[in-house]
Amino acid sequence: MAQLAGGMIPAGEHGNYVRGQYNPGTGKIDQYEQMGKDNAIVLKQGENAPEGWAEIVLGFGDDPSTDNGPLTVTAGTWSMIIPRNLRCAIPSAHFENLLQSTETRYIQPAVGQQLVGYKAHRYNVQVVKWPEAVDNSVNEYLEETKAVHEKIEVG
């Protein structure tokens, strides 16, 4: 078994190399499985998400130092790595946490006035297919969430 860092870190403990995800920099398919976290299901053309899961495309963010790599989303004790700029399927709990992630942004209405804060979505998420639920109360909740998420932010 190969060792990392001169034998100080056992291989496989901090990043097993697993085939699976397209890397546009190399033109090959690469993927890293990190510390027991699951990877979101990357969907191929014509492939559908499992029942009850959402189909999304997670876009790149404004900060190139932190918003260009895969994003880890946790629901309960289940952590999942979501790649950017690929159509993938994620469970509804992870989808909900992703949509509820907000940050406070500030604008200055006029020169000399105090800044005014407003809530905005933290991540650039394109929803391809919303998850479907069997229970009507959950469907009502999803419709309310959809209405909030589909608002247009002009800044």
User: Got a strand count?
Assistant: 13
Determine the fraction of residues in helical runs and give it as a percent range.
10-25%
Order of the strands making up the biggest sheet: 6-10-7-13
Structural class of the secondary structure composition? mainly beta
Number of helices: 2
* Low-pLDDT runs: 12-19
Average of pLDDT: 75
* Cα separation of the termini: 53 Å
Radius of gyration: 19 Å
- Shape call: globular
Q: Profile the largest sheet.
A: 4 strands, antiparallel
Strand content: 35-45%
The ordered H/E elements are: EEEEEEEEEEHEEEH
Write up what this structure looks like.
There is one protein chain. The chain is mainly β. It is 15% helix and 39% strand. Strands 6-10-7-13 form a four-stranded antiparallel β-sheet. Strands 5-9-8 form a three-stranded mixed β-sheet, covered by helices on one side. It has a two-stranded antiparallel sheet with strand order 1-2. The protein has a domain at 37-134.
Features:
155 residues; mainly beta; 4-stranded antiparallel sheet; 3-stranded mixed sheet; 2 helices; globular
